[in-house]
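[step 3/7] inverse_fold.run input=structure_tokens len=257
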């Protein structure tokens, strides 16, 4: 519509297809630059800050594209929350603009949204992706029906995690974050474990390894939150050392006559 073309012309135009392919490659180069900027980022290197902020915007746009591609399901957009907020949180942390507590709350919100939106697919609120069922049957040996039951169970745990990581009790929040980290790692690695084939290693790795790598934040961010919360719990639970007793004045010695 913006180009003034009808759908048939747009969909069959080689020039437009080449432009879209070039744009995708351009985004790929930019994401690679953002990866380098992350490794080089310091408070003084402002160009890295700008790159990561733009990278967060680009990842948000990518999530929006997935949302449009999946029939405008908000859950599709929300499940990428951890990924597109993380570069921005990293810049805030490097620049010291926000307090530690605010940064942790932002990370918690991203994790909660990611897990809750995954849960919407797992429990069947949105159609459960066939890819998820295939991964489950391949890795567990279950049939399709039992695999769906397992996914429903996992979806319920996703909602529990989304709620419990905000619990004021560390006895609830810490186990929830530990589970989130382990389950996030399992679901990230499942893509490669289920679909990478030794007999076709090159092609299957090219197709699936990045699917695992892009989901690594689903494991690392809950782990960071777990370690931060446990460290704060340990610090707050340590009793202050008792103050030393005041020194007693030396008794005066009478002069000998």
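[step 3/7] decode complete -> sequence:
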């Amino acid at each position: 519509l913006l180009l003034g073309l009808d759908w048939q012309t747009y969909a069959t135009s080689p020039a437009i297809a080449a432009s879209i392919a070039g744009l995708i490659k351009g985004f790929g180069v930019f994401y690679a630059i953002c990866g380098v900027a992350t490794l080089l980022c310091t408070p003084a290197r402002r160009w890295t800050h700008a790159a990561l902020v733009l990278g967060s915007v680009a990842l948000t746009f990518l999530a929006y594209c997935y949302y449009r591609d999946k029939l405008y399901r908000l859950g599709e957009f929300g499940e990428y929350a951890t990924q597109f907020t993380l570069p921005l949180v990293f810049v805030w942390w490097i620049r010291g603009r926000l307090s530690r507590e605010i940064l942790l709350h932002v990370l918690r919100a991203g994790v909660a949204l990611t897990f809750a939106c995954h849960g919407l697919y797992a429990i069947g609120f949105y159609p459960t992706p066939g890819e998820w069922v295939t991964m489950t049957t391949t890795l567990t040996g279950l049939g399709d029906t039992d695999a769906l039951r397992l996914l429903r169970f996992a979806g319920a745990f996703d909602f529990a995690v989304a709620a419990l990581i905000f619990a004021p009790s560390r006895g609830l929040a810490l186990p929830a974050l530990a589970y989130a980290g382990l389950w996030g790692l399992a679901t990230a690695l499942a893509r490669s474990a289920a679909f990478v084939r030794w007999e076709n290693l090159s092609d299957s790795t090219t197709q699936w390894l990045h699917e695992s790598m892009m989901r690594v934040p689903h494991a690392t961010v809950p782990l960071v939150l777990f370690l931060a919360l446990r460290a704060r719990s340990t610090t707050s639970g340590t009793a202050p050392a008792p103050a030393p007793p005041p020194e007693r004045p030396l008794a005066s010695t009478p002069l000998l006559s």
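[step 4/7] annotate
The first helix runs from residue 7 to 12.
Residues 12 and 236 are 64 Å apart (CA to CA).
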